[in-house]
Amino acid sequence: MPPSADTLPPPASNTPQWEPGNLANPHAVADKAQRVNRMFSAIARSYDLNNHLHSLWIDQHWRSVAVKTAAVKPTDIVADVACGTGDLSLAFAKAQPARVIGLDFCHPMLQGATHKTQRCSSDRPVGFYEGDALRLPLRDKSVDVVSIAFGIRNVADWGRAIDEFYRVLRPGGRLIILEFSLPRNAVLRAMYNFYFWKVIPFSATLISGDKTGAYRYLPRSVDTFISTNQMQARMEQAGFKDISAAALTFGICYCYRGVLPHD
Predict the structure, then answer these.
(1) pTM of the model
(2) pLDDT for the residue numbered 234
(3) 234 CB contacts (<8 Å, ≥6 apart)?
């Protein structure tokens, strides 16, 4: 078992990754995957605190919505992709599926997730493993639910990732995606943008000691990511049916759902 996050030395990757030159559209940067990995390695220690604090703990509600939307059954195997420090994986475990598999390509984040399992009261097995969303270490048609929370925009090729999710799901399986968006109401959008672009980069960087530019990347990566219509269209192109997109908290977050049709 890897050491707990509390005993880890400061990450060696806390060097600038996102600067004005590559922030115009971070999704177009050729080495995006490597930069994202180094970024998350640097902020792993403070990731949970910043998530909860800057969402005013609403992120926990969003994850509970994702679990309910998945309609978990006792026989289900759940694969939580880009699981980070494991909050959604452990929320799924409370729904009592047969098994939960947490996958992430950033090792320091997985160390934090593994540490959490020691305090988890669920009697359902939760395992955390290194795995890339574009090359999941899972067999074809081997899981019943694939989830990804606030990770799809960080993947180098999000469309290919959706195809990969389709590959590993069994017929009748559900894909659940949580992702940030921007409020449609002009007043709320202006208030949110001030908080997102001004407050969070300052306070989250102060808390984390981050030098990678992670909290400058965050608002820019949301602002330049695809629309809800494009996400749903790509899910349909991959072969998913019964696609829905539920706006949460005035449209700050969306919960997408798609179902793999039965053969």
Answers:
(1) 0.93
(2) 98
(3) 158, 159, 162, 226
Residues 6 or more apart whose CB falls under 8 angstroms from that of 238 comprise: 162, 163, 165, 166, 258
pLDDT at 120: 66
Is the Cβ–Cβ distance between 168 and 141 less than 8 Å? yes
Q: What angle do CA 134, 140, 143 make, to 5 degrees?
A: 90
- Three-class secondary structure of residue 192 per DSSP: helix
Q: Among candidates 227, 262, 257, which has minimal Cα distance to 71?
A: 257
Tokens representing residue 31 in the block: 């080495």
Query: Where does the chain show beta strands of DSSP type E?
Result: 77-81, 99-104, 126-130, 143-149, 169-180, 241-248, 253-259
Residue 229 CA: distances (Å) to CA of 67, 79, 218, 234:
22, 25, 21, 9
The answer to whether 228 touches 245, Cβ cutoff 8 Å, is yes
Which overall architecture, per CATH, does domain 23-259 show? 3-Layer(aba) Sandwich (3.40)
8 A C-beta contact, residue 252 and residue 218: no
Each domain of the chain, given as residue ranges in start order, spans 23-259
Torsion, CA 189, CA 195, CA 198, CA 200, rounded to 10? -130
Mean pLDDT over the full length of the chain: 92
pLDDT in tens, 57-95: 999 999 999 999 999 999 999 999 999 999 999 999 999
